[in-house]
Amino acid sequence: MQFTRLRLSGFKSFVDPTELRIDPGLTGIVGPNGCGKSNVVEALRWVMGENSAKSMRGSGMDDVIFAGTSARPPRNLADVTLTVANEARTAPAAFNDADTLEVSRRIERAAGSAYRINGRDVRAQDVRLLFADAATGAHSPALVSQGRIGVLITAKPAARRAILEEAAGVSGLHTRRKEAEKR
Ligand code: ATP
Ligand code: MG
């Protein structure tokens, strides 16, 4: 799964609309402390369905919305859009007719999140399923936050098993089985 573009607006320190192109190969983000490097990675995690405010370094999900500075008033809305190449047609059937997928999540203060794929309203679960098998996803071991290595080393066996299952690509199957059992 190839990510090609990330757009942020009102998300954490990215108050103005910002577009980052993601070319094939390795992308590095460099900058001084506090410039927003980790916020970019958190935007990726968030748009893929992250539910834990704590792993976004906040106490509630509204904390991802630009909180204002001495020079700028706070925002009431944050929006992140991730563009994913789908030429290989690996997306679930419902979205698999397009060459690119635009996955977006937007949050309004005190009103929660809404997700869209190519302009259609979808459930958070649809977004999670889209990324579940792709070694991506909000909980993918491919996303290693600052300080996570230490947590991994001291993890309990059950938590470490979950990490291994994700790495082995079977956690997507668990999610689908739970979905099927509900029907
Ligand atoms: P380091 O090199 O220290 O890891 P970094 O480049 O990863 O730094 P981030 O942690 O991404 O930096 O960004 C931190 C900045 O984002 C801080 O200045 C913080 O005030 C700002 N920030 C975080 N959340 C918000 C918010 N909701 N509204 C406005 N600014 C925010
Ligand atoms: Mg950082």
TrEMBL record:
Binding of ATP, residues: P32, N33, G34, C35, G36, K37, S38, N39
Q: Where does it localize?
A: Cytoplasm
Specify the superkingdom.
Bacteria
**Membrane spanning stretches:** none
Quote the subunit structure annotation.
Homodimer.
Free-text comment about domains: Contains large globular domains required for ATP hydrolysis at each terminus and a third globular domain forming a flexible hinge near the middle of the molecule. These domains are separated by coiled-coil structures.
Regarding protein family, the annotation reads: Belongs to the SMC family.
Role played? Required for chromosome condensation and partitioning.
Protein name as annotated = Chromosome partition protein Smc
Native source species: Rhodothalassium salexigens DSM 2132
